[in-house]
Amino acid sequence: MLVRHATSRWSIETDYREMEQALGLGGYEGRTYRGFHHHVTLVSAAHLFCLEHRRNPKGEATASASTASWRSCRPP
To answer: Which residue in 1, 2, 3, 42 sits closest to 23, CA to CA?
Structure first.
């Protein structure tokens, strides 16, 4: 039970760090709550897309130029 809790915390912290650094969660400089909420929603959607792409990479051997940009979603 303790190991599962520690593992879940690690994955949450890793996801938050990725959203903050790679996807720009920490880069919001607006002043309104609505703008902040919009920014967080878009970053969360981008993070979900990256997670799904990482779990189900469709046709990596035949990756085109348009899908090559999504390779940056992978962790270093």
So the answer is: 42
How far, in Å, are 6, 15, 17, 52 from residue 1 at the CA level? 9, 21, 25, 27
Give percent helix, percent strand, percent coil of the chain, each to the nearest 5: 75, 0, 25
**Residues 8, 32: contact at Cβ < 8 Å?**
no
Q: 62: part of which helix (H) or strand (E)?
A: none
Q: pLDDT tens across 19-74, in order?
A: 888 888 877 777 888 888 888 888 889 888 888 888 887 755 444 544 555 555 65
